[in-house]
Amino acid sequence: MTGAGAGDDHHGLMGRRDWLRLGATGAAALGLPACAAREGDAPPAELPPLRAPAGTGDADWDDVRAHFLVEPGTAYLNNASIGMPPRKVVDAVAAGYRAMAELPARGRSDLSDRIAEHVVPGLADLFSVETDELTLTRNASEALHLQSIGVALSPGDEVLITSQEHPAGRRPWEFRQVREGIRVNEVFIPSPLPPEGEILSRFGDAITPRTRAVAFCHVTRGGHLYPVEAICGLARERGLVSLVDGAQAVGQFSVDLTSLGCDAYSVSLHKWMLAPAGTGFLFVRRDARDRIRTAFAPDATPEQPQFGPPGTAAFPVRAAIGTAVDFVATLGLEAVEARCRFLSDHLKSRLTEMSGTSGVTLLSGARDRSAPGSTIFEKEGLDAVAAVGAIEASISSHIDEHQRDGHNAIRVSTHIYNTMEQVDRFVDALARTTG
Q: What percent of the chain has pLDDT over 90?
């Protein structure tokens, strides 16, 4: 992933004063040495130091919350759709685009170096894989298509998916079903999730002699947590390729991709990982490269698998992934998970209090079967789609609907920057909201 121009005598790794004229905030966000700001630029507001909070309460996270740019009075409770990057990440993207605008060739080269030397190694370390097992993508949808299209299948071969897959996880297989004559077999998984033993039994019963791969999500759109390691173990025992949609998982809790045992794993980094929009990656295990191959390069080899689409990438956006990784790593994923769980537990407690008087039914399952930050529930007589707009208009709180899996549900996804007061304000407004 080394950029062009590495041999240029004038090339310097993010260090030339005439290369960038940025304020200290933007330069530091991208890992650049600070340069003088342009005349007339207002100095950025000083941020509190970023450090791992001592506890899970709101006061413990006040300094972290100061790093985000959300409009005052707005509660963003829809992180599972797209995350809210901190100011450092926003500044890093801006710094990268200015570099590309002022000195395009050098800007591209230096950003490419940062991606190769900082971004990819940082991701590999965070997810416990080797750097050559990762391919950067625009999002999980692109990665899911690449991993699906890369599995060697013949007409009549079957792929097993679940009833709770996101359309981005389902559509690549439907594409191959129409174009190539493979068969997509769906196993029904109830919502809320049953115990692990029943899930494995349902998978095992749905596997046939023609099954070649299993594809499923780590965390469902509704926040249900699948037993990934156990399902991948079952697939391995049956000689099947295992492919996982991790869009709703990474950034909420620690994910060790090597330990999970999957052959491929697709990620969106612009949700819980707080990276810029349009970022993700595809993981393909080294020893799965003979069964999952590139859709692009006829000269690909197991040593050089070339999974990524060719052409110019959004270098400033990809370089800023490193800033998001550093941000999350400084806090610690264990602390992030505990904070997300603290807020969702508070929400679930408030919703449970309403169950007897306001017709609220909590649909999120037990702690070992639910992700830390996403909560789904129904309210009797309330249309979930209509409620999204009504809540935003009344209290400037952003939520999402979950009209699927047999539910007419609302989804609330709380992240580290939310507060108990925002949760309480939402629940109070929900109590007043009708059909």
A: 83
In contact, 80 and 221? CB cutoff 8 Å: yes
Alpha carbons 200 and 231: distance in angstroms, whole number? 7
pLDDT 10s digits, 210-223: 999 999 999 999 99
Tokens for 173, please give them. 């297989």
Tokens of 12: 């310097």
Question: Quick one: angle between helices 87-102 and 104-114, nearest 10?
Answer: 140
**Is residue 360 predicted with pLDDT exceeding 90?**
yes
Confidence grade of residue 144 (pLDDT, cut at 50, 70, 90): very high
List, in order, residues 6 or more apart from 156 with CB less than 8 Å away: 181, 182, 183, 210
Place of tokens 């507001």: 45
CA pair distance 405, 189, nearest whole angstrom: 9
CA distance 245 to 434: 35
The whole-angstrom separation of Cα 90 and Cα 13 is 21
What is the 3-class SS of 171-225, one letter each residue?
A: HHHHHHHHHHCCEEEEECCCCCCCCHHHHHHHHHHHCCCCEEEEEEECECCCCEE
Residue type, 89: V
Q: Give, rounded to a whole angstrom, the gap between the first and last alpha carbons of the chain.
A: 53
Q: What single DSSP character describes residue 47?
A: P
- Residue 298, pLDDT > 50, answer yes
At CB < 8 A and 24+ separation, what contacts does 418-423 make?
418/75, 418/76, 418/77, 418/343, 419/58, 419/65, 419/75, 419/343, 420/58, 420/343, 420/346, 421/58, 422/75, 422/77, 422/397, 423/77, 423/343, 423/346, 423/347, 423/350
Q: What is the pLDDT of residues 191-242, one digit of tens each?
A: 999 999 999 999 999 999 999 999 999 999 999 999 999 999 999 999 999 9
Q: How far is CA 310 from CA 167, 191, 297, in A?
A: 25, 40, 9
- What pLDDT was estimated at residue 1? 41
- How many Å apart are CA 64 and CA 332, to the nearest integer? 12
- Torsions phi, psi for 224 (to 5 deg): -75, 140
What pLDDT was estimated at residue 11?
35
Main-chain dihedrals φ then ψ at residue 300, nearest 5 degrees:
-65, 150
Please report the sign of the dihedral spanned by the C-alpha atoms of residue 423, residue 424, residue 426, residue 427: positive
